[in-house]
């Protein structure tokens, strides 16, 4: 088999891989999507209001452990450059939509993902890096 280009999404890593590795494989390799879950409209409304509430706010008022900065913009699509793996012909790239970006005072940036549900303690180290 010659090299292929695999499209991966952050939400697939965070949810689909954890929930069903076979479903992850079928989506990425075969293009077979599992049925979407029903998302009550209230969560979409809450998400929008949270983003509006935090827009332009200082990061240290949102979470004191964050470096000083300001919420600058949100909800944009991003795509990585191709990722190559030594000794493999196939490559992959990551494409997804982020919630919000904080521009820190030191010139760096952080991506914030607002949640309207309970967070899992084991995910926090993966998603919060200083």
Report on this model:
- The protein is of the alpha+beta class and 130 residues long.
- It has one domain (5-127).
- Helix content is 32%, strand content 27%.
- The protein is built from 5 helices and 5 strands; from the N terminus they run E-H-H-H-H-E-E-E-E-H.
- It has helices spanning 10-19, 21-30, 41-54, 59-62, 124-127, and strands spanning 5-8, 69-79, 83-84, 91-104, 109-112.
- Strands 1, 2, 3, 4 and 5 form a 5-stranded mixed beta sheet that branches.
- Helix 1 crosses helix 2 (21-30).
- The mean pLDDT is 85.
* Mean pLDDT across every amino acid position: 85
Specify the overall morphology.
Answer: globular
Uncertain regions spanning at least 5 consecutive residues: none
What's the helical proportion of residues? 25-40%
Question: Short description, anyone?
Answer:
By secondary structure, the chain is α+β, with helices and mostly antiparallel strands. It has helices at 10-19, 21-30, 41-54, 59-62, 124-127, and strands at residues 5-8, 69-79, 83-84, 91-104, 109-112.
Give the helices and strands, then pairings.
Layout: E1 5-8, H1 10-19, H2 21-30, H3 41-54, H4 59-62, E2 69-79, E3 83-84, E4 91-104, E5 109-112, H5 124-127
Parallel strand pairs: 1-4
Antiparallel strand pairs: 2-4, 3-4, 4-5
Helix pairs in contact: 1-2
